[in-house]
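Ticket opened by: R.M.
Priority: normal
Category: complex prediction / small molecule

The reporter submitted a protein together with alpha-D-galactopyranose and asked that the result be attached to this ticket for the collaborator who will pick it up next week. Submitted input follows.
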Amino acid sequence: MTSSLMTEFESIYHSPATTLSSAPGRVNIIGEHTDYSDGFVLPCSLEFCTKVLYRKRADNLVVVHSTNYPGESDSFDVSGDITHGSSQWGNYIRAMAFVIKRAGHTLGGVDVLIDSDVPQGSGLSSSAALEVAIGGMFSESSSLNLSAEKIALLGQEAENDFMDCQCGIMDQMISAKGEPGSALMIDCRDLSTKSIKIPEDLSIVIVNSNYPRKLVDSEYNQRRIDCEQAAKKMNVAMLRDANLELLAQSREQLTAVEYKRAHHVITENQRVMDAMSALASNDIKTLRQLMSASHNSLRDDFEVTVAATDGLVEICQQVLGDNGAARMTGGGFGGAIVCLCRAEDVSRIKQAVSEQYFDRFQLTADIYVCNAGSGLKVEQLEPLPA
Ligand code: GLA
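Result attached by the on-call engineer:
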């Protein structure tokens, strides 16, 4: 596939690409809406990824095309102030240039072609994949030698300070540091990671609800404010530092909403710890209980599910019984659900979703059977044969 992209690059820029930076989307197995409270998460990187082909320019221009938006392009000068442009996807590239420059680095110009197969708007982190791949490109092309962790942190800053989304660090960290065949437990306070091999007989099935997501950023940012308020009233730095006992003692000080948000985060952090051991020992029954409790908590306490994702989880849980686990994944307000099950149950999920989902919600779901792919990679390209 890269060779047809290289041909496309050459036809746009009249010179071959020299380098490829690629970074994956992710699915979160458990640990939702815990990252911005310094908590724990257990995502894995996907094989869906964003590829960034590029070639250094002699001047300071960054010129960007994308196969996902044919006919559109963006260009800006990295020697001056970086401001927003009119292209929404182009702004992610500007955002990365902005935060890297703000960190004190000097950037040079590049010709860029982007190509992504990460489904967009489905909670599988297509924007983090783009940020991390672009971070890898700038790091290499301007000889900055940034670590994967630093690129992830810059990606989060790009979202927070340029794109106005107050996201946590999970998506960028897993996109930068994911490992094939494994999930990564990330401690979002000190950013330490522990890799957990996904048992070979466990399939990861993602069901995208295709529910039209609305007001996602404003609702998301409000959840973060609720958590920060709750932590403040409980006299802890972050909800990571609270436990159920403290929550019970603080009940009077908290609004009903803050209480629920804190209850979700505190219980979800514990579920991540428990799920880590259950995954390592291929204990599907325990995973089922934990993922089901996570979903219910996101529905009732954190209020980020919609009827369509609740319905999909119900359909899949019913089909799988004790032999598989299902929950919503990602930021919520639509998006996708994730199932862990045995290979022989995948076709039963497909059948149940196709029989029941449209009838109940007048929507058609997309189903992806996935493997954990690798994190950020930057590689030199061999020229195409003449
Ligand atoms: C989005 C954010 C992440 C995380 C999840 C919810 O994906 O980008 O930082 O908060 O939502 O777990």
